[in-house]
Design brief:
single chain; about 325 residues; about 20% strand; seven-stranded mixed beta sheet; alpha/beta; 2 domains; 14 helices; Rossmann fold; five-stranded parallel beta sheet
């Protein structure tokens, strides 16, 4: 993707003002190259915000597109069959470092190269997936930033019971094809007896499966929904929110954009900040540090958001104690 295409991608008004950026400029010399591979499409507003944060942080660190760095983007690699050829394309360009978004994309890049440094964002279990030897000492060509820890799944279940005490059944939307999906499900299942909710796992791979599974689950009463943190939750976020409302299912989501889009409640890390932090690792690698020596980092903060309009539509009264803990309340 060329520079002018990227400016159009992230929004000309906000992106163009940053070109060029002169603070903390790197010495003029060899043009460096960065690859970026993400599953979000070019017209996805959330994806635009994430990439904009990454590029703007690079500029703050002195890397200016077209002057001392070239950035090659591959977007929309949401399925493994698309991630693999895109990964091969980026590797063939021989970039100095690649930014990888999510576990499936990181896996595709890891298989494509053992030499080019890879910085991932929003991966849940990089050790279990075989991307790194340990969080403290990655040991190879891959490092990055965790999406969250598995224990967050128990918190989602607790929130569902707190905001909707009448819920006795919960459908857990997960992607069973990835290890992270199984890990989140196990954490939720372990907490279920204490919370008093019967958990049903719904493994889905596409929009059609999501719609059919939720419709079938909603036929019985006292149900709720937990959407786990997977690429599916981002790609199909509008569908998940609309289905929860259509079937009147109180739902807990992993990302704030689910709530701003009409979802009931979300609890999870900021989705933009990891891209800024990843730019810092990319900068350090371009300056000579090795991924093997850069520890995998966890989120700094988890945020609680509640949509009162949605709660009212579902006939729920949000406890004052829960409102007091919220980072944002949408009215």
């Amino acid at each position: 993707m060329r520079r002018r295409d990227f400016i159009a991608l992230v929004g000309s008004a906000s992106a163009a003002v940053a070109w060029p950026f002169t603070a903390r400029v790197q010495p003029v010399g060899q043009m460096r190259r960065i690859g970026v591979l993400t599953g979000l499409a070019a017209d996805d507003a959330e994806g635009q915000a994430r990439l904009r944060a990454f590029v703007q942080e690079l500029q703050q660190l002195g890397w200016s597109e077209g002057r001392n760095v070239q950035i090659d983007f591959r977007l929309g690699a949401s399925e493994p069959e698309r991630a693999r050829p895109y990964a091969a394309e980026l590797v063939a360009l021989a970039p100095d470092v690649i930014l990888a978004h999510g576990s499936p994309i990181t896996e595709a890049l890891k298989k494509a190269t053992g030499a080019i440094p890879i910085v991932f964002v929003q991966v849940i279990d990089p050790v279990g997936a075989g991307f790194v030897a340990s969080l403290a000492r990655p040991g190879g060509n891959v490092t990055g930033f965790l999406a969250f820890e598995y224990e967050l799944g128990a918190k989602w279940l607790e929130l569902l019971k707190e905001i909707a005490p009448g819920v006795t059944r919960a459908a857990v939307i997960s992607d069973s094809s990835i290890a992270a999906g199984k890990g989140q499900l196990h954490a939720i299942e372990a907490a279920a007896p204490t919370v008093g909710i019967e958990v049903t796992s719904i493994g889905v791979r596409d929009a059609g499966e999501i719609e059919r599974a939720i419709a079938a689950f909603a036929k019985n009463s006292n149900g709720g929904l937990i959407v786990t943190g997977t690429p599916l939750a981002v790609i199909h976020r509008e569908l998940l929110v609309s289905l929860a409302m259509r079937h009147r299912l109180p739902a807990v989501y992993p990302n704030s954009f689910h709530v701003t889009g009409g979802g009931l409640v979300s609890y999870g890390p900021n989705t933009i900040e990891p891209f800024r932090r990843a730019a810092g690792y990319v900068d350090r690698i371009l300056k000579g540090e090795k991924p093997a020596d850069l520890p995998v980092q966890a989120p700094i903060k988890y945020e609680l958001r509640i949509n009162l309009k949605t709660a009212k539509a579902l006939g729920l009264r949000v406890p004052p104690t829960l409102l007091a803990r919220a980072d944002e309340v949408i009215e």
